[in-house]
User: Which sequence fits this backbone?
């Protein structure tokens, strides 16, 4: 059969999403969703939504949302682009600023969507391995520059480890890099520190920040994210490469109310952070090695010498008990599972399941 696919598309595999079981009794700790509900105002918006308004096209540039986001971050509306999830921003940055054949840089490991987007654009990837403790090597920017990288993806806090690069170091990296720096802050809401990155981005000529409502605002199903950056980087995506009506009218209204309800969102971040500390300590007591995380997940290394140090076995045994965590069959991650922080009750059930799995193995 003749294939009409471009050769790079024919050769590539697609993005492997985390499992999305429909069974509501499953405890889902595999895709970093927020375990707490979105702002109650979201329900009101949906309840009062004027269905007749759908006859018309939505506001093309999401001005209401961008104004609220700009005020929140102390920047101007022109410094914000609203996108269909953070993922649309990643795609726009790739297609707007990188020619096919040019290199896209990233750390290893990192968010597994980045290499996929590079393949779609027919761009080779250049990977710099992180240090043993998941920190960024000193020569990171030099390596990127030497390879002639055009766009560098950096996820901070890091996925899948939760490690945070301090703002000063990010600023230094951006200054050293010859490329655009896409600073992916999908999990920044769960970091224990105040963020100065938006001011840094708009004062730069090469930083675009990614934010999303999927994690911090409990709205993964909505598909709403945004970018923050200098006008010179936001404007071409805004006026040329974005779909003319990339965000529907319902999503725009929901996103506005959710971003505006900072008090509600912050409460959920505090709860996640406090549960994260509790789960980390409990896992350490069970013999796991769990580095500090600034995200809403933990990367836990199973204790060795118990016959169960194969993390894939742990993943499967948890799945038998209807608890989903994420296992990556990839270098440096094979002895680890990534566990999203759930509600207090979900975390308790996870911990007792792990205790049961290891307890029954010991004798
Ligand atoms: C979740 C996530 C995003 C954005 O996801 P959307 O749901 O498309 O907003 C971006 N980067 C990382 C690392 C993520 O985990």
Assistant:
């Amino acid at each position: 059969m003749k294939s009409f696919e471009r050769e790079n598309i024919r050769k590539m595999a697609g993005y492997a999403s985390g499992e999305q079981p429909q069974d509501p009794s499953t405890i889902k700790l595999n895709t970093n969703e927020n375990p707490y509900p979105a702002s109650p105002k979201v329900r009101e918006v949906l309840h009062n939504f004027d269905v007749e308004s759908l006859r018309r096209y939505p506001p093309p540039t999401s001005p209401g949302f961008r104004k609220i986001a700009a005020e929140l971050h102390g920047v101007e509306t022109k410094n914000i682009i609203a996108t269909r999830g953070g993922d649309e921003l990643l795609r726009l940055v790739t297609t707007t600023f990188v020619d096919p054949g040019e290199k896209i840089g990233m750390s290893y490991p990192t968010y597994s969507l980045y290499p996929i987007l590079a393949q779609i654009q027919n761009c080779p990837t250049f990977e710099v391995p992180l240090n043993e403790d998941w920190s960024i090597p000193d020569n990171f920017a030099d390596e990127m520059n030497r390879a002639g990288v055009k766009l560098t993806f950096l996820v901070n806090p890091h996925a899948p480890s939760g490690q945070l690069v301090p703002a000063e170091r990010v600023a230094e990296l951006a200054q050293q890099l010859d490329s655009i720096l896409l600073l992916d802050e999908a999990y920044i809401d769960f970091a224990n520190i105040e963020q100065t990155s938006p001011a840094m981005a708009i004062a730069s000529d090469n930083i675009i920040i990614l934010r999303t409502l999927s994690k911090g605002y409990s709205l993964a199903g909505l598909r709403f994210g945004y970018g923050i950056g200098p006008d010179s980087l936001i404007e071409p995506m805004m006026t040329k490469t974005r779909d003319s009506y990339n965000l529907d009218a319902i999503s725009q209204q929901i996103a506005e109310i959710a971003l505006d309800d900072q008090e509600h969102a912050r409460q959920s971040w505090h709860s996640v952070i406090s549960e994260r500390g509790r789960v980390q300590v409990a896992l350490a007591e069970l013999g796991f090695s769990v580095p500090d995380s600034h995200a809403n997940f933990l990367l836990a290394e199973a204790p060795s010498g118990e016959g169960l140090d194969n993390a894939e076995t742990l993943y499967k045994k948890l799945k038998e008990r209807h608890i989903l965590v994420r296992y990556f069959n990839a270098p440096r991650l094979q002895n680890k599972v990534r566990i999203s922080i759930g509600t207090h009750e979900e975390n308790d059930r996870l911990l007792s399941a792990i205790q049961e799995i290891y307890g029954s193995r010991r004798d």
Q: What stands out?
A: The two ends are 57 Å apart (CA to CA).
